[in-house]
Structure prediction request, 514 residues.
Amino acid sequence: MCQLLAMNCNTPTDICFSFEGFAQRGGLTDEHNDGWGISFFEESACRSFHDTLPAAKSPIAKLVKDYPIKAFNVIAHIRMATIGAVELKNTQPYIRELWGQQWVYAHNGDLWDYKFTHSSPAQPIGTSDSEAAFCDLLNELRKLNPVEEPELKQIYNCIKAFSENTAKFGTFNLLLSNGKYIFAHCTTDLCYIIRKAPFSEAHLSDKDISINFSEHTTQKDRVAIIATKPLTDNEQWTVFEKGQLLVFENGELLDLD
Amino acid sequence: MCQLLAMNCNTPTDICFSFEGFAQRGGLTDEHNDGWGISFFEESACRSFHDTLPAAKSPIAKLVKDYPIKAFNVIAHIRMATIGAVELKNTQPYIRELWGQQWVYAHNGDLWDYKFTHSSPAQPIGTSDSEAAFCDLLNELRKLNPVEEPELKQIYNCIKAFSENTAKFGTFNLLLSNGKYIFAHCTTDLCYIIRKAPFSEAHLSDKDISINFSEHTTQKDRVAIIATKPLTDNEQWTVFEKGQLLVFENGELLDLD
Prediction:
């Protein structure tokens, strides 16, 4: 099993505070020792950092904590390996291009006996159940339109049907982004918080650090944070319902049902 | 215009020494100020680092210089922007998956009036001539076999024909790797060196640093370095012929003609 973290905002925001707490779970406050990764969307481009060392000890994780990269969308993952060896090729998030956009994916849960069903164009590089499901999902999305991004509602319906089917193999807690939206599907554990004015102080659950967001924001800023478990202990997080697929854009929850 | 660097070895090797000199050209000893990137293949997996800051000043470049990642294949690029703004989406190397392998690409030169000719599956994310050519090349390679890696000779012939055609638009100095081979095509500026036993001391051209490779290697190690211009001033580099496409595997030059 693993832990997931995502951020979706209406203004470029750094994730240093949330990642500081999240990275503690990679070997200090929790047992997710088997590598980690993070992807940052800056406009339509995306850059990622991966390491097979525990997040709490990785020099690359230290860089990410110390170097404030401002992004509209971020997806991070820390791993406790179950299916697939501890190797870079099995280290999430996974990234593929579709419709001239980067698509970034992270998955928490085991998909027992999951088999990759498409032959191409997206194919797994590693040996994890998670990446096989990602490639199948991308190939399903591509069927909607092989060249251009279709309507959001079509994308939503495709991800919803895929998630419901894939959850039959086990646990499918999913984070997916194309740099504009965050799609988040919950089988067992996901929660979110939307921070907006009036901003207040937040205190990490995993490390004794607080931040007063009112000192770092403007009145119009909106920031949604999605995580496996709440990252702060003095804010109200909303727990996903089982089987729910939520879509965030510009730090807001969209209504697509 | 830009500068290119690649490494291809028969044993996992760090590129810290070569990258130390190369990064100086990103704002100190040369004028390549418009971002940089590097991709490391560790077995079949690949991880990359990109920044829009000059390589000589980037905190991420400092990490890469200080954190010895051992890899079989590495491709790096420093940019002086001509076509496409200084943005992350135009920062090389570019990466795409094909046949369940990561393909990493870096290009030096301008391709005036180059138009992306395929519609999919590989599509450009940014606005550079370089990425448009990369996507076209991948789509050509995919035509050889949509699912599985074909014979090396077929891949070589495809890249050779594509490079010759693309060079009609301008300068097409190319580095390409799937984690096993480095393909290097020269229109104007590329050179290489193969280091093997007996190893000796090398001194950087761009910074007063030397290394005695005999202290860091075994008798069987072979390391090929390919670069726009020689990185050391006391070794014999071989200059590519114009129009030449060379392929390196396990630190050796293959004969495919």
Summary: The interface with chain A takes residues 42-50, 59-60, 63, 66-67, 87-89, 91, 95-97, 99-102, 119-126, 142, 146-147 of chain B (CB under 8 Å). Chain B has one domain: 2-253.
